[in-house]
Amino acid sequence: MASVFAGPCLGFNTVREQANQAMTTPRDIGASAQAAGVKAHAAGDLVTAEKLYRRALAYSELPGPDIYANYGALLREIQKPNDAISVYRRGLKQHPRETILLRNFANLCRNQRVEL
Predict the structure, then answer these.
(1) CATH assignment of 14-112?
(2) pTM
(3) How is the chain split into domains, by residue range?
(4) pLDDT per position as a tens digit, 2-14
(5) DSSP for the chain?
């Protein structure tokens, strides 16, 4: 008796390729990198977290304030205050009223005695 499923399913490769492609859009890559960066940061893997946050910013069309806040906090943690200032400024250009960015930036400037 012949199996009903003996031959290839028509369109399977096309649908599968479309699904894979949909999961690898720049937006998805950015979101995935951000989530992985948060996990790495929480686990104390700061080198990996920095790379992932950078990747999230590179692949996100309009990054949310969280990525800027997390990345800036990480840069402060690894003693890169000038880089943190740049990240916070970029974030504030896109999200000028975001409280977490304003607070983190103000604290960094106060601690580093940065002149605005």
Answers:
(1) 1.25.40.10
(2) 0.76
(3) 14-112
(4) 544 444 444 545 5
(5) ---TT-SPPTTHHHHHHHHHHHTTSHHHHHHHHHHHHHHHHHTT-HHHHHHHHHHHHHH-SS--HHHHHHHHHHHHHTT-HHHHHHHHHHHHHH-TT-HHHHHHHHHHHHHHT---
